[in-house]
Specification:
The chain is an alpha+beta fold. It contains 14 helices and 12 strands. Strand 9 and strand 10 form a beta hairpin.
């Protein structure tokens, strides 16, 4: 009762004011009967206009809901059901018995751009596993659940729960199947990466460990001369160092990938770090008959970051260039400023054998190698470039790789530019 009175309060107020005005005119003997009639007419006009406006607003609201698939033909009875489904944070699609889409909530449009009413579900999902499951649910009137993949243009790994709407009382009785679809692509890919990492790490550690165990067993039973023992001891030393490198690199990656890993940013003399790294790798460059030219000026701008981590990046890239460019190669190291994005780059360029284009995008993957046999022979762990990439990201920079097979490679690291 009070709610109805509150809704009509404006009209009651206007009506009371009208009576007071008319009565005042009568008391003052103005005899303004025509004014009284006009006020009454105004009151009635306002009342009926407001009713018309409310009715018009409701019609516009109903049309808007229909356009957005919240309601279809039976808005009054289905409104609450479809409005609730529309605001759920996961994909909901309702089908009729023939597999045509009768309703799709707003979240479904975030996942699939081509959803339309009356389209058959097979035009949205090409997965035979899902279509068969929907058919089985329709025929057997039993709920179903499955996981399936969608292939290019965009890969997705999805979970679908399929419900037969036997107990849901909607106005349109031909709405029989409800699909609840969850995008599990990210979690699926993370799980695959974790499994791949464990498999690769186990494989990488197994190889040197087998060599160590074999050498130890041979030494225990060997009765030969000291020279032959020295061969097995060298194997032990070599494979132990390889295991140590793998473990150290894994620990470095783990540390870098932690969210709470913090870098203390200090000014770093880039010329000094590059010069020291070249000196440290002098014996290695002589071994592989590779010449290195440092073209970085001693007046180059400083960069900001962790000097130990930056030294690790520079060392890794120059060492790779020495080992993989080939005998007799020339390595040139120079700096460059990009005005386009205000970055300072260090470019390590070689004129060696180069890298095929189909490998470049995968070089920073953990344990990825271009030449697996050559890499293992040279004590490579397949983690170096992944570490470089992570260090550069922590320094708000990035790694850039370009190469032409037979012509050489460019490995560039780019830092935010600090003007001297």
């Amino acid at each position: 009762m009070m709610k109805k009175l509150k809704n009509h309060l404006p009209y009651l107020t206007l009506f009371i004011l009208t009576l007071i005005t008319s009565f005042s005119n009568f008391i003052l003997e103005k005899n303004n009967f025509s004014s009284f009639i006009l006020i009454i007419i105004f009151f009635l006009s306002y009342y009926f206009y407001d009713l018309y406006k409310k009715n018009l607003d409701k019609n516009e609201y109903d049309a808007l809901l229909k356009k957005n698939n919240l309601l279809e033909k039976n808005i009054n009875n289905d409104e609450k059901v479809f409005s609730f489904l529309n605001f759920l944070p996961f994909t909901i699609i309702i089908l009729n018995e023939k597999g045509k889409i009768k309703f799709a909530n707003s979240s479904s449009f975030d996942l699939f751009k081509n959803i339309e009413q009356e389209k058959h579900i097979s035009s949205i999902f090409r997965s035979p596993y899902l279509l068969n499951a929907i058919e089985n649910t329709t025929e057997n009137k039993k709920d179903n659940k499955l996981e399936f993949e969608i292939l290019p243009p965009e890969y997705k790994y999805l979970e679908a729960q399929i419900f037969y709407l036997d107990n849901l009382k909607l106005e349109e009785i031909n709405k029989k199947i409800l699909l609840c679809i969850t995008d599990k692509t990210d979690s699926f890919q993370i799980e695959n990466m974790r499994n791949d990492f464990i498999t690769n790490a186990s494989h990488e550690l197994k190889t040197p460990l087998s060599s160590i165990i074999g050498s130890v067993e041979t030494l225990k039973t060997h009765k030969g001369d000291d020279e032959s023992k020295k061969i097995f001891l060298n194997i032990l030393e070599k494979q132990s160092k390889r295991m140590k490198n793998i473990v150290n690199n894994l620990l470095s990656l783990s540390r870098l990938e932690r969210e709470d890993f913090i870098i203390k940013f200090l000014d770093i003399n880039l010329f000094k770090i590059v010069s020291e790294t070249i000196n440290d790798l002098n014996d290695l460059s002589i071994k592989y008959d590779v010449k290195i030219k440092n073209k970085i000026s001693n007046k180059v701008s400083n960069i900001s970051g962790d000097s130990i981590l930056i030294s690790q990046v520079i060392n890794n890239l120059i060492e790779n260039a020495i080992i993989y460019s080939g005998e007799g190669s020339l390595i040139e190291i120079y700096s460059e400023i990009s005005k386009e994005n205000n970055t300072l780059g260090v470019i390590i360029k070689d004129n060696g054998i180069g890298i095929s284009s189909n490998h470049i995008s995968r070089l920073t993957e953990k344990f990825y190698r271009v030449d697996d046999i050559k890499s293992k022979d040279r004590q490579a762990t397949g983690l170096g470039l992944s570490i470089v990439k992570n260090i550069m990201e922590k320094h708000n920079g990035f790694l850039q790789i370009s190469s032409t097979l037979g012509s050489g490679s460019n490995f560039s690291i780019w830092f935010p530019h600090i003007n001297s």
